[in-house]
Amino acid sequence: MGYYGAGRSSGTTLMCISARTVLFSILIAGTATAATNHFVARYLPVGISGSATLLAVDSSGNLFVVATEQEPSGQQQIRAIKTDAQGNQLASFDFGSGSDAPAGAAVDPQGNLVVAGTTYAQSFPLVSPAVSTINYQAGFMVKLDSQLTRILFSTVLGGSQGAMGSNANAVALDTAGNIYVGGTTASADFPVTTGAFQTAGPMSEGAGTPAYAFVTEISPNGDSVVYSTFFGSANTNCNGGSICIGAVGVTSANAIAVDSAGAAVIGGYTTANELPVTPGTVGQQCNCGYRPFVPSGFLAKFAPGGKQLDWATYIPLAQPGGEAASGYELSITSVAMDAQGDVIFGGIAPTGLFVTKGALQPSYPAANSAADYSAPFIAKVNAPASSYVFSSYFGEGVFGSIGAALALDSRGDIWLTGGSAPSALPLPSSIPMLGSTFVAELSADGTSVIDAITAPAGAAGQAIVLAPDGSPAALGSAGSLLLDLPGQPASLVGVANSAGIQVSSDVAPYELVSFFGVGIGPANSLGAKIVSGSLTNSLGGVQVLFNDVAAPLLYAGPNQINAIVPSSVYGLITTSVQIVTPNGTLTGPTLSVVPSEPEVFQNGPAMPGGGAAVALNQDGSLNSASNPASGGSIVTIWATGAGESPGDLPPGFVATGFWTPALPVSILNESYENGGQGIDSLAVLYAGDAPGMVAGVLQVNFQLPSKNFLRVGQLTCQLQIGTAVSVRFSVYVQA
Question: Would you state the pLDDT for residue 35?
Fold first, then answer.
């Protein structure tokens, strides 16, 4: 690595007041107000590239998490993890064929885990399959024993025809352990049973092949198909002339629920304008189309045995043809039935969703069109689907949002989790805005929010279940479980790199980390205190302990604490966290210790696609859209998570020397040469101590490519330290 003065670039001071102000405002920023719930985060090992998607619970309150994770070899696997009710891992099991996508999970009366999804591999591991004939893409179903030691049975679910294959998108079980799978198929020979409600499958229509939803019931031991039926139609609305040649309807069942009698309700999306909807239901017209692509939602209820349709309805957008919502999707992603047979459903919707009088959020949020991902919604229809009980938007969509996932408690109250811009959520003002995921309890009639929390990205939003005692558990994509644990003095909903965009189960020595929660710190926020050149490890009596070692503190407030991971974690595999709060000691999660976990401080909300970094141009001015850097010049950024330093500078000390990381530092940038193929490593002139900042803040000076390669107004990069790579960040450049 070339050396370039830590405090200067071409003779100009880099650590100017404007950048220092922006950076320190990030390091000590906090939130205010308080709430009453006591959720506590626990983290499960899903890997750096992994993503947790599914959550189920057994009759004893044990939890099952299903995730995809990447092996060191690069092979993708499905990972099932079992925990006790407190989130302590009991067992795990990996399976799959490298290209599988899990989509639904449930637990049978014996505590065995059933997972459904889609596979693209002929090598998918089949054990006593009920169906084994597929084309290149099929649904799959796997039952694992209750201790996650072996596959009891596994089968594919698809046909041999159709270029698009089949997908299994959801699974539910009845009280006898029969397995109900919902999905979509383009295979005309998908295995349906004699006498089923719809036995004629999707047939090619000129240049196009329609896709139909399906519902399939399989016996508890997986040896037979009890019933299987299509649900769909080939016709669609299309407005576009010759482009409509081959236009066909597509219908997908994305959610399923089963009542005590074995009746199944499916929900999803469709562009088919001739679904077999029944008279008198809430949606008789599709208001959907192939061009523009504007799907309608739908619900359908099948009588036990699958030979009769009790009812079916569209859940359409209000605008016929969907012009106001072109390009955005209405899709039902979660369904449940209450004791009265009413159907509660949630998902995502653009503008035009039908909402009822007195709705919690009656209108689509005014979103930034550049980041408009549709909005979560929640609705309820009565048992015959002849009228709405309520229908409401719930927040504003964010990157990675899958809509509102739901569960019902014994009172009929509705528990939701999802993703939203926090300011758009229809929550009481007393709820702290801690991030872009949420957990909320609504009254059964949908008119009021009983309780709620928000949490950082990755902390919740994927799935939610209720234990037999009524305790909620929510899952986040980062392997995060938010559990309502008894005896905790406060809520801790997330731990994250202070420069990161989502929660993480990993920490590195000297990393600046932020803890988010409710009631975790003093009612009146306190900033850092420096004594003898070092930060104190207590603010207002609040401390953060890593294996009983108190961490230096940058900030402590009622809902956020910023700390520096002590160097004492170096060489450990894991470290346990405790927070001494004003109301007692909170037992936090156990975190994995890694050599490095770099993230770059961004100016404003960090964005998955590359938010603007806090950066200085070569002349010492703040980098911005109105003040971009020139090609070939040197820019400075700041980061944290570089890991152990060879000098062993105590965490919390204000840097005065030129410490450099023990691991190599690189700035990665997608090459603009040869059509954008490959990755360039830009010239790093200095990486190390940021004078005037605490140890753990890394300053990096690097040189931009020449102007010939700067074809856009922002240059997107990643910071690599050792083998770990940050999320994308950008600097403004002269195009």
Answer: 45
Of the candidates 127, 200, 134, the residue with the CA atom closest to the CA atom of residue 167 = 134
Q: How far is CA 151 from CA 126, 148, 265, in A?
A: 9, 8, 28
Element (H, E) at 17: helix 17-27
CA 562 from centre of chain: 24
pLDDT computed for residue 17 by the predictor: 44
CB neighbours of 511 closer than 8 A, spacing ≥ 6? Answer: 497, 564, 565, 597, 640, 641, 643, 696
For residue 613, give the DSSP letter.
B
- Copy the structure tokens of residue 172: 């539910």
Residue 266 near residue 335, CB atoms below 8 Å? yes
| DSSP H or E run through 230 | strand 225-231
CA 24 to chain centre: 29
Q: Cα separation of 167 and 157, whole Å?
A: 8
What is the C-alpha to C-alpha distance for residues 87 and 589, in angstroms, rounded to an integer?
Answer: 9
d(CA 419, CA 458): 9
Other CB atoms within a 10 A radius of the CB of residue 541 amount to: 12
3-state helix, strand, coil in the chain (%, to 5): 5, 45, 50
Q: Which helix (H) or strand (E) covers residue 534, if one does?
A: strand 534-535
Dist CA 709 CA 734 (whole Å): 10
From residue 244, alpha-carbon distances to 79, 164, 290, 320, 361 in Å are 42, 19, 8, 18, 37
What pLDDT, on the 0 to 100 scale, is given for residue 28?
Answer: 56
The secondary element (H helix, E strand) that includes residue 577 is strand 574-581
On the 0-12 / 13-18 / 19+ scale of CB atoms within 10 A, 260 is exposed
Positions in the chain short of pLDDT 50? 1-17, 31-35, 320-327, 368, 370, 672-676
Task: Give the model's pLDDT for residue 59.
Answer: 96
The C-alpha atoms of residue 295 and residue 211 are separated, in whole angstroms, by 13
Nearest to 635 by CA among 564, 565, 571, 730: 730
Phi, psi of 433 (to 5 degrees): -95, 95
Q: Which of 512, 499, 501, 495 is nearest to 586 (CA)?
A: 495
> What residues pair up with 454 in beta bridges, in sequence order?
438
Q: Can you read off the two tokens belonging to residue 45?
A: 């090992």
Whether the upstream peptide bond of residue 598 has omega within 30° of 0, thus cis, is: no
Q: Could you list the beta-strand ranges (E) of 382-511.
A: 388-393, 405-408, 414-419, 437-442, 449-455, 461-466, 472-476, 480-484, 491-497, 506-507
SS3 673: helix
Q: Which CATH class is domain 497-593?
A: mainly beta
Q: How far apart are CA 170 and CA 350, in angstroms?
A: 23
Token pair listed for 300: 């359908």
What is the Cα–Cα distance from 692 to 21, expressed in whole angstroms? 12
Identify which of 516, 439, 427 has the alpha carbon closest to the alpha carbon of residue 473. 439
Measure the CA dihedral 28/34/37/42, to 10°. 0
Angle at 562 between CA 558 and CA 563, to 5 degrees: 130
State the Cα–Cα distance between residues 413 and 315, nearest whole angstrom.
22
Q: What are phi and psi of 587, to 5 degrees?
A: -85, 110
For residue 204, give every residue at least 6 positions away whose Cβ sits within 8 Å of its Cβ, in sequence order, or none: none
Tokens, residue 485: 């644990």
Measured between alpha carbons, how far is 158 from 142 in angstroms, rounded to an integer?
14
- Secondary structure (3-state) at 37: coil
Q: What is the DSSP letter of 365?
A: -
Tokens, residue 256: 């399923």
**Domains of the chain: which residue ranges?**
8-26+596-732, 111-327, 497-593
pTM: 0.91
Q: What is the pLDDT of residue 2?
A: 29
| Token digits of residue 79 | 């990972």
